[in-house]
Write a structure and sequence with these properties.
The protein has 174 residues and is an alpha+beta fold. It has a single domain (12-173), classed as Jann2411-like domain (Jann2411-like fold). Helices cover 45% and strands 11% of the residues. The chain has six helices and six strands. The protein has helices at residues 12-19, 38-41, 48-67, 75-87, 109-126, 158-173, and strands spanning 22-23, 28-29, 90-94, 100-104, 132-134, 143-145. The strands form three sheets. A two-stranded antiparallel ribbon has the order 1-2. It has a two-stranded antiparallel sheet with strand order 3-4. The chain is globular and about 60 Å long. The protein binds zinc ion (ZN). Zinc ion binds next to loops.
Length: 174
């Protein structure tokens, strides 16, 4: 069970939920053509191929979120996201009040990925992206938003992963 499900602000919650479709602890993967957010992210149905692409995108994002938690920036993950970004069709749209917004201009899996990339770019500009992290425990990697004032939260749940890590380093010291 995770205490880390308090959603990230705004649309960034959709990135968090995508990453957490894979539950390493439970060994379940909810990503499919009908995962709960697919309807919010895509205007049409997703093919199996689309879902496979979104899964690759998801794991590249997960590795980047680990770097937000003090890890090394994974060059392969950056290269993968760079490639997704190069292919993404994103446009700038202006709302009735004149405010600009990045929007996806694609269909299917490309629409999902373009939409998520637009959300990530917007979150980076707003300073929320770096607060989206994944738990550093190898068997967890759950995405959570760091609401702490000094951005110092490490574990998805101190009671679970934090204590497990403490017990491991205690055993290693003895
Ligand atoms: Zn954890």
């Amino acid at each position: 069970m995770h205490d880390a499900d308090r959603p990230a602000p705004g649309d960034l919650r959709l990135v968090q939920r995508l990453v957490n479709t894979l539950d390493l602890e439970e060994g379940t993967d909810a990503l499919s053509d009908t995962w709960p957010d697919s309807a919010e992210l895509a205007s049409g149905a997703l093919s199996q191929e689309d879902v496979a692409r979104v899964a690759i995108f998801r794991e590249a994002v997960r590795r980047l979120l680990l770097a937000h938690n003090g890890g090394e920036v994974d060059a392969d993950a950056v290269a993968a996201l760079e490639a997704f970004g190069r292919e993404a069709s994103v446009r700038v749209s202006f709302g009735a009040d004149g405010s600009p917004r990045l929007q996806a201009a694609a269909a299917g899996g490309d629409e999902v990925i373009a939409r998520l990339l637009a959300i990530i770019a917007q979150a980076a500009a707003e300073g929320t992206w770096e607060r989206l992290k994944v738990c550093p425990a190898d068997d967890c990697r759950w995405a959570f938003y760091d609401f702490s004032r000094n951005h110092s939260r490490t574990w998805c749940d101190m009671k679970v992963c934090g204590n497990r890590a403490k017990a491991r380093s205690y055993r290693a010291r003895r």
